[in-house]
Amino acid sequence: MTTMKTVSQDADKGASASQLIDAKIKELNDWRGETLKRLRALIKQADPDVIEEVKWRGVPVWSHAGIICTGETYKSAVKMTFAKGASLDDPSGLFNASLEGNTRRAIDFHEGDAIDEEALKALIRAAVALNVAKKAGSRKGKSAAET
Predict the structure, then answer these.
(1) Which of 44, 51, 61, 82 is deepest in the core (most CB within 10 A)?
(2) Which spans in the chain are helix H?
(3) pTM for this structure?
């Protein structure tokens, strides 16, 4: 059984990132909380080794060899932003926000939206693979420079 690591930049509260995300979901107490809860579960299914963090004044962040994605909540949307989304193939056309940038891509979920769970998990796995590959590439570059 894999134990999920958690990191929190909110140390003065003494709560783990997981606890802070749990509290955020509970506090929302509406469709946004349910959507964030479902997205979180899908992220964990796609990558059991994911690290949960809370950054930028309470934004849930999921990482593995770098940031995979964030889960921001707004009045009319839950935004799942992929840190390196512009570098990912999106054969199912999930990305529907932040399309103009060179790096990030996002998916806005609105009340009542269906979630294509298999396509989303594939996108999460692709983001993890990209992070791992980039990290491995940077290690090779460092060791070559050091020799």
Answers:
(1) 82
(2) 17-28, 31-46, 117-146
(3) 0.83
